[in-house]
Amino acid sequence: MLIEQCAYGNRWRKVAPAAKGLFCLGGFIAAFAASQPAAAAAVAGLVVLITVLGAGVPFPRFVRVALPPLGFLLLGCLSLAYSLDFQGASNDFTVLWLPSGWAPIRQLAARSGAALAALLFLALTTPMIDLIALLRRLKMPEVLLEIMVLCYRMLFVFSEALHDTRTAQAARLGYATPRLALRSLGSLTANLTLQIWQRAHSLHIAAQSRNNDGAFRFLEPEYAHVRRDLTIAALGGALLIGLAVGMP
Amino acid sequence: MKPLKHQPSHRRTPVSSAAPDFTYLSPHGLDSGIRRNDEILLAFEDVAFRYPDGNTGLDGCSLSIVRGSRNALIGANGAGKTTLFQHANGLLRPQKGGIRYAGRAIDYSRAGLRHLRSEVGLVFQNPDQQLFSASVREDVSFGPLNLGLDTETVRQRVTAALQAVGMEKFADRPVHNLSFGQKKRVCIAGVLAMQPQLLILDEPMAGLDHAMRAELLAVLDELHARGITLLLATHDIDFAYRWADRIHLMSSGRCTSAFAAAELPDNAETLSAAGLPVPGVVELHRLLVTRQILPAISSPRSLAELIAQLNNTQKDFQ
Fold it and tell me: What is the ipTM of this complex?
């Protein structure tokens, strides 16, 4: 929901998604092309700055969205920091601290951070519907797009159904004790399963009533300054790559 | 599709305060669609349908919808209203009897159904059942794109349909950010974009607050003014009496009776047999006539009309 709010509320909502995608791609390439961790970190910082200052995504919100993936990144770094060393027949093992020094950790953290910043730039400035339309233009297989569209829409329908059912259960003390909570959770799952089946059937009927014969077709949104946006994005992406490669 | 402008329908014109006598032009009087044109657009002829689980959907249902008219279908829950609607749109096929659209028996071939579904638009009761695209514009474009129209035409139709329901500002919004009433209007736009002749709405007023109802009613009035035939299911007899040209009653899968809404006061027994009350305004009008406060002509269809009559009467006394 946080991502949704940013995607719809940022200053670059009307910028062509293709341009934002291109800039994100530039960020990715820069992240992987960065010769030094410092260069990757600079790329990450720059992209965050552009997201916050350029697109107007509030910084605290950016941090909140970034925290979970940063947690994963931390875990990844920790696994690099330790190493288990098995010693042959005795089955003994020792834990090695920093077997290859700080260098690979720094490299991983900086590169992943830059890639994450680039991805968050795209996610926080581009609504899902625009992303799906962009993927459609990029000739992504229709079946995957249809699944994406349905999943995205159903996500909200079901979060509402889930919320309503849970509230109704809680109102009748369904979650008063752990035992009751487990029981309620079970019936909630069963109920939702049934709802999913019914919803799928209703959607099928509704689609048929509007003359659908299988494939889902939707109108793609139009953007006013696609060329201009693309040029700026290409320049921005090139700048990032240049920074990543050129920085000593 | 012509973009619609909000213009008050002439039939809602209030009575002139300068009216010299009791003359009151009923808004559903001589100018109503039924009298003007009696072409039957949709006809159910003794249609029967039983669901695979044994439940009766329709049981010898016969019903006629006149082109250009406003129709209210009233029946208890489980009376078969939704089943009837799904038959009208070709989603279900009668097991007995037949359905005619514009004088011709429905053709259930792929091309025939495509034609029928472009002519008969169905708006479901629960908007979340009908809306499955992420954005408003996308969802409205779904139907016309299914008709095989080119992108430019679809774009125009989508814009016009969104204008017709007053939702053009929301075109790029995600569906889940809309209110219930807005979702309903998007559902109607999604069907309107297919430019149907007959628009069927399954309990469109359910779950709407007073303001949303008024907005939806304005949309329906505009569509009717444009010549679209309307058929809607409702439980509200007062609304049906006020709004419709013709009222159809359903019970246990049977279309038990149909009459012109103006003749409702004469059909009190039929209503009572269907477990429906007589609209409050009819009872009140009767009482006022009995007490000789109002003359026994032209039953008002709504409280507003009754009040207008009373005001006129008062002026006359003065």
Answer: 0.71
B313 band by pLDDT with thresholds 50, 70 and 90: confident
In this structure, is residue A215 part of a structural domain? no
Within this chain, do residues A112 and A234 fall inside the same structural domain, yes or no? yes
Of the partner residues B122, B146, B174, the one whose CB lies closest to the CB of residue A217: B146
One domain, residues A146 and A32:
no
Which domains are assigned to chain B? 33-277 (3.40.50.300)
Token representation of residue A115: 């890639």
Per-residue confidence (pLDDT) for residue A217, from 0 to 100: 76
Q: What is the pLDDT of residues B27-74, one digit of tens each?
A: 343 334 344 457 899 999 999 999 999 899 999 999 999 999 999 999
Among A42-46, A98-102, B180-184, the range scoring the smallest mean pLDDT is A98-102
User: Looking at residue B122, what is its pLDDT?
Assistant: 92
H-assigned helices in chain B: 33-36, 81-88, 110-119, 127-130, 136-146, 151-164, 180-192, 210-225, 237-243, 268-273, 280-290, 303-317
A218 and B138 within 8 Å at the Cβ level: the answer is: yes
Question: What does the pLDDT read at residue B260?
Answer: 92
| Domain membership flag for residue A167 | yes
Residue A216 lies in a domain: no
Which of B142, B162, B180 to substitute to test the interface with A, most A CBs within 10 Å? B142
Q: Are residues A153 and A120 in the same domain?
A: no
Residues A14-40: what's their mean pLDDT?
87
Separation CA B209–CA B72 (nearest Å): 20
Name the more confident of A219 and B198.
B198
Q: Per DSSP, which regions of A33-174 are E strands?
A: 82-87, 92-97
Q: What residues of chain B lie within 8 A of the CB of A221, using their CB?
A: 135, 137, 172
Does residue A64 lie in a domain region? Answer: yes
Closest residue in chain A to residue B115, using alpha carbons only: A211
- How many separate domains does chain A show? 2
The residues on B that touch A, with CB distances below 8 Å, are 86, 89, 91, 110, 113-114, 117-118, 122, 124, 126, 128-135, 137-143, 145-147, 151, 154-155, 158, 172-177, 190-191, 194
β-pairing, B40-50 vs B96-101, is antiparallel
What is the mean pLDDT of the segment spanning A122-126? 90
Residues of B in contact with A8 (CB under 8 A): 173-174, 177
First to last CA, chain B: 50
Q: Is any Cβ of chain B less than 8 angstroms from the Cβ of A210?
A: yes
CB-CB under 8 Å, B131 with A153: yes
Are A210 and B143 an interchain contact pair (Cβ–Cβ within 8 Å)? yes
Least CB-CB distance to A153: which of B113, B122, B132? B132
Q: How far is CA B270 from CA B64, B248, B264, B274, in A?
A: 18, 11, 9, 6
Instruction: List the domain range (segments joined by +) for residue A56.
Output: 2-83+95-127+223-246
Q: Are residues A43 and A149 in the same domain?
A: no
CA nearest neighbour of A44 among A62, A64, A28, A65: A28
Residues A41 and A153 in one domain: no
